[in-house]
Design goal:
- The chain folds into two domains: 189 residues, Rossmann fold (3-Layer(aba) Sandwich); 171 residues, Rossmann fold.
- The chain is of the alpha/beta class.
- It starts with a strand and ends in an 8-residue tail after the last helix.
- The strands form two sheets. Strands 3-2-1-4-5-6-7 form a seven-stranded parallel β-sheet, with helices on both faces. Strands 10-9-8-11-12-13 form a six-stranded parallel β-sheet, sandwiched between helices.
- α1 crosses α14.
- Keywords: Transferase.
Length: 375
């Protein structure tokens, strides 16, 4: 039996992939019958709304992540709970925390993504933020008992960057939410390609928008692009880019699309286009495949690892390469499309949040130097 603390302050879809990871990890751990005790730190929004079994204790900690209060107060709050192991689901581990912990490192995008185009901050604050980021990130990596990574690609990056023992890093592949494969229709002209996710520079929406414009200059019929992305400063930049490139007749920004509508948005599309320069896993691609559409993806190491031969790959730095992949998707015959989608749906079922939670629980026990009952 172990006493496990989870920092759940990033729980909720408003926290994008991190929030979805926590929703599914907590949900699946709660389904596992055990005598283990869990403590979860939650912000006010989910403290009352989240129903958990009797062996779970909720602690209200309405402290924003990346804040000074997080650094100063969280270590004391955790110490009072006297737990065997703490799981930080993100790299923002307080520098003064002295307990045993595991940390999930989802990606190393900010190590690679530099420059003022990747921020909304003025230059002095941006460089101060980057310094703080590296100090906190490095601390989490060095002092953790174990690191959980969502892919072998992230594990390899961590080993190369920090000269770590491979045994310290455990790959726990994520799952996908099966409820996304259904849903209500969204009004979108056809035929269309779709992109979902944030509009950060590494997502390469600039290349995708240029590609949809180039595709339409060579096509007899209009082909559209739907972008499902919560509105913020980065989507505003994308809107300006659409105008500047003359692509406004082909691109529709939908804003945030809830899970209950995502499935139909994927399913009714020609394909989901994932033009990122870098990722840690690639969850939206699995959602798209499970929903019954084609996947067009950047030819990068992590996508090859996660999707195998279930995608049409292109060079994300070459607009013409993206256009070629789009034309290939448009030209796939009805029977070939059905066969490819059927194969992909069978393939994605190997990814499971339940399996990830089981693997994570085993890592908790290993970190506690304890044997898991019945294992």
């Amino acid at each position: 039996m172990a006493k496990i603390l989870l920092d759940g302050r990033l729980y909720g879809l408003e926290n994008a992939g991190l929030g979805r990871y926590l929703i599914n990890l907590v949900g699946e751990l709660a389904k596992i019958e055990s005598e283990d005790e869990y403590v979860i730190l939650l912000r006010k929004k989910y403290f009352d709304a989240l129903n958990l079994p009797g062996n779970w204790k909720k602690v209200l900690v309405d402290i924003r992540h990346y804040s000074l209060a997080e650094q100063l107060k969280i270590p004391g709050i955790i110490k009072k709970e006297n737990t065997d192991i703490t799981h930080f689901p993100h790299f923002n581990v307080p520098l003064t925390f002295r307990g045993k912990f595991v940390v999930t490192i989802h990606d190393m995008l900010m190590h690679r993504s530099r420059g003022l185009s990747a921020t909304t901050l003025p230059a002095p604050l941006y460089f101060l933020k980057r310094l703080g980021y590296r100090i906190v990130f490095d601390n989490a990596v060095r002092k953790s008992y174990s690191i959980l990574a969502p892919s072998q690609s992230v594990k390899d990056e961590l080993i190369a960057e920090y000269n770590l023992s491979p045994d310290k890093i455990k790959v726990t592949y994520e799952g996908f939410d099966k409820k996304i494969s259904g849903g209500n229709n969204i009004d979108m002209p056809k035929p269309y390609f779709v992109f979902t996710g944030n509009a950060y520079p590494h997502k390469n929406l600039q290349g995708l928008i240029k590609a949809i414009k180039a595709l339409n200059t060579k096509s007899e019929h209009k082909v559209f692009l739907a972008i499902a992305s919560a509105r913020n400063i980065f989507t505003q930049r994308v809107e300006k880019l659409i105008l500047d490139t003359g692509a406004k007749d082909y691109v529709k920004i939908l804003g945030f699309v809830p899970d209950e509508k995502l499935g139909s948005l994927y399913k009714n599309s020609i394909g989901f286009v994932f033009p990122s320069f870098s990722e840690g896993f690639g969850l939206p691609g699995l959602e798209a495949l499970a929903s019954g559409t084609l996947l067009l993806a950047s030819n990068i190491k992590v996508f090859r690892e996660i999707y195998g031969d279930n995608a049409l790959y292109f060079d994300p730095k070459d607009v013409e390469s993206i256009v070629v992949a789009m034309n290939m998707a448009l030209s796939v015959g009805s029977d070939a499309r059905k066969n490819k989608i059927s194969k992909s749906i069978r393939f994605v079922n190997k990814y499971s949040w339940a399996k990830m939670a089981e693997e994570t629980l085993n890592i908790y026990y290993e970190s506690c130097n304890s044997l898991r009952p019945g294992k």
